[in-house]
Every structure is written in C-alpha cells, then in structure tokens.
Design goal:
By secondary structure, the chain is of the alpha/beta class. It has helices spanning 3-6, 18-35, 54-74, 76-82, 92-104, 130-143, 159-166, 197-209, 225-263, 270-277, 279-293, 301-308, 349-359, 369-372, 378-392, 395-416, 423-433; strands at 9-13, 46-50, 107-110, 121-124, 149-152, 172-177, 186-191, 213-217, 326-329, 332-338, 343-346.
Length: 445
C-alpha cells in the first residue's frame, strides 16, 4: 500500500495537544489536496482526530480552522490551480474558505479511539509517559487493521522498546516533530531495530510532502535534539547552583538565562526555553533518559522542587506562556522565581542595572539573534562575536565561553555514544529544531 492509499484513512491520537494539533493540520491539508484531484473525487477520505475530552476537541476545532486559513492564505497560487475548474471561485477569499471547508469535510473529532479501526496510518502524539504510550499503542494494535503503520511523536522513549512492549512487529517508527509542527521544519526520524522497510519508505515520502527536513537519529533515549537539550539545560542548572550563594536563585537564574541568550546568541534564554517546553516535560524527559540510559546524573533537584510547588511553565489554551522559572506579561519576562522563598522576584530597574553592570563591565553591546538571523554576513559576524567574547576577559565572558564549550562537548559525546553518525546531523537538529544560528560542533572555541 503506497502513501496515497494510506492517506485515505488516518488517525491522530492525542490530536488536541500542542503536538497532535499541529500534526493534524499538516496531514489534513495533504489529504484535502489528494481528495481534490479529479481521479480521487469519488474516494472517501477520513482524518480521525482523537482525544480524551470534548472540551479539548472544542479547542482543537478552533485551532484547526485558524491554522487552515493561514495555510490557504499562503497557498492561493497553488489553490487556484487546484480549483481551476471551479468558475465560481474568483476572489482569494472564496478560494480560501472553500479549501478550509474541504479540509473540514475530512475531519472526524471524537473521544472514541475505536474510530481508528480502519486507519492505515496512525500518529501517536500523547503525553511523554511510556506506560501510557505503551497502553495506548497496545490498544491501537488490537483495534486497527493488521497492516496499520504507527508514527510516534515520542521525544525520548526508545522506539524499539515501544515496539517490543506493544508487540507491533516493526510497524512503528519515531517521527519526532518539533513544536509547533506547522512552523518547525525539523522532524527527527528514529527507526526501531525491526522497523519495516515499507514504513521507512512511507516516512521518507511523507516528510517530503510535508516539506520537512528529516534528520535521522539512532534509537538511543533522548535522540539528538532532547539528548542535547536535556544536558544543555542541566549544565545551566548546575551553574545556577554555583551562583546562588552570591546572587540567590532569582539572580543566578537571571544571569544564566541572559548569558545563554545574549552571549551565545540564541533566540531565547535556556530558562525561557524550558518554560516554553514545560518544566513537567523537561522533568519527564530526564526521567525517561535516566531510566533507559542508567545515568543518575540526568536529574535536577531544582526542577523537582519547582514541580513540587506546581511551577510548571508550558502554555495556556490560548497559546500564551505560563509562568515557570520566569514570570511573563504579554509574553515578556517581568520577574524570576526564587524557589527558596517560593515567590517571584519582580524585575527592578536598579537591581537589573546592578547585575547587568557586572555582566557587561565595559558596557558591551552584542547583536541579538533576531538581527543576525537574516544578516547575509551572519557567519562572519558570529565569528567576530565569539572572538570579542574571548577578548573581554571577564567573569561573565568566561561563563559564556564555558557554556559554549559545554554545548560542544555535549554534542561530541552524542557522536561518541552513537546517537548521531556525523556532526552535521547534530548541527542540523539544533539549527532547525531550536533555531540556533550555528551548530554546537563549531570552531568558535
């Protein structure tokens, strides 16, 4: 069965989550385009969107409509070709609305997992809990067609382990989208020991159609992206422990967040990133990797304390950022949490000036990530930036350079451990999945 045939009936389990919803948008538009081809007009297409509550599905309905409108607005030239025989569709607005309607005609929103019984392709995008994933996959194996193929969005659980525990006989592959899937180009592809050749081929073809950059990762817990991110975050957390005696938790977190963003020229600081992902997700990631790799060092007492106090980050239903390490207002940090005092320390201009004067003793100014992103001389300016950092010869520049060295060492260890085959795979993952301007394996240090 080829990909076109499999795309006639698809299920997304966990469809209302932030990952499942994005996967649903991507698959819906591809299925609609197939349905609109003249040779397919009499075929039935169904995208079954499954989640646990009607409330979650109501949110998914609104998200799907908003995102499909955006997709159509960006694809009007293509849609005019698709609808060339529809003489009544003249204005762009008419074409956009028609395409959204055609997409919606394929969708089946439900809390009943049994609706997946006729699915040829199943995307699993539930919470990163291996016991629940295995239970759901076992259930799906019993419900679905015997030749159904499974693509799991797990970000850390070994695929061979899921395959063995759910007894899927190689009909599963890791297909790790990055958040949000509708925007992020990267998909990590992780084959189990027994993943079938058919599924490998389907996964590759699907990635091409979705216009994603596919990066292969070996089936080692955490894979490339989270294998690096988890250790990168732990490095910053360990530095916080060293700095807290002088600056308190709030000061130490502020310093390392700023160093990771401005000194390392990243789109956001490390603690903003962990907040975005969710402290609960980060904690779960560490737990899964610790279990499967047997590395007790993959743990953070600070993360555990934050979670005990229900400070978890993540996003609200409307997409706004929840408070985590940092407190947010209109998406911008306005305070930082002190776990010892169990409260947020709100940014005060005098306090910020005092710490910033130590971070930038000579009033240094660094070009931010957003400025360099589209700069044609980006690489040249990055080289200059890190050379200037070496010349600063301050405690803060040492913090930045040590962090840069640590990220490189983490990446090199991923190669040693066989998580990636070549440096380019690691660099591509961090640059495409995390929007870094440069890969961690570089010549800057």
């Amino acid at each position: 069965m080829n990909l076109d045939e499999r795309l006639q009936n698809v299920a997304v389990v966990g469809a209302a989550g932030k990952m499942g919803s994005g996967i649903a948008v991507l698959v819906a538009q591809e299925m609609a385009k197939l349905k609109l081809m003249p040779e397919n007009k009499n075929k039935i297409y169904r995208l079954n969107l499954i989640d646990v509550t009607e409330e979650a599905l109501d949110g998914l309905r609104g998200y799907m409509k908003t995102q499909l409108i955006k997709v159509a607005e960006k694809s009007t030239v293509l849609l005019r070709t698709i609808y060339k025989d529809r003489k009544n569709l003249i204005e762009n607005a008419d074409i956009i609305n028609t395409f959204v309607d055609d997409c919606y005609a394929l969708l089946n929103f439900t809390t009943d997992i049994n609706i997946s019984k006729d699915a040829h392709l199943v995307f699993e995008a539930i919470f990163e809990n291996e016991e629940i994933k295995i239970k759901v996959l076992k259930n799906l194996k019993d419900i679905c067609l015997p030749d159904a193929l499974f693509l799991t969005n797990t970000s850390s659980i070994p695929i061979s382990y899921l395959d063995e525990q759910a007894v899927l006989g190689g009909r599963i592959i890791g297909y790790h989208f990055y958040n949000p899937p509708v925007i992020q180009k990267l998909v990590e592809v992780i084959e189990a020991k027994n993943t079938t050749d058919e599924l490998k081929s389907i996964a590759t073809e699907l990635g091409k159609r979705l216009r994603k950059k596919l990066v292969p990762a070996k089936d080692i817990s955490g894979f490339i992206g989270n294998g690096h991110f988890s250790r990168d975050g732990l490095y910053a957390l360990n530095e916080v422990e060293k700095l807290k005696a002088e600056y308190g938790y709030h000061g130490a977190l502020y310093i390392m967040n700023k160093v990771s963003q401005e000194f390392l020229v990243r789109p956001m600081g490390i603690f903003q990133l962990i907040d975005y992902v969710g402290l609960d997700v980060f904690q779960s990631l560490l737990r899964v990797m610790r279990t499967h790799l047997g590395l007790e060092a993959l743990n953070s007492e600070l993360i555990n304390r934050m979670m005990d106090k229900k400070v978890a980050g993540g996003q609200n239903p409307n997409g706004s950022q929840k408070d985590g390490f940092l407190k947010y207002e209109k998406g911008r940090p306005i305070g930082v949490y002190n776990v010892d005092e169990d409260k947020y320390f709100m940014f005060d201009e005098d306090w910020k000036k005092n710490i910033d004067s130590k971070l930038y003793p000579n009033n240094e100014k660094f070009a931010p990530w957003r400025v360099l992103l589209m700069d044609p001389k980006k690489q040249e300016k990055l080289e200059s930036h890190f050379e200037d950092l070496k010349k600063m010869n301050t405690w803060s520049s040492e913090l930045g350079l040590n962090y840069l060295k640590a990220t490189k060492k983490i990446a090199e260890n991923l190669l040693v451990d066989g998580v990636a085959t070549i440096a380019d795979e690691i660099n591509a993952t961090l640059m495409n999945g995390f929007y870094w301007l440069y890969g961690p394996i570089n010549n800057y240090v």
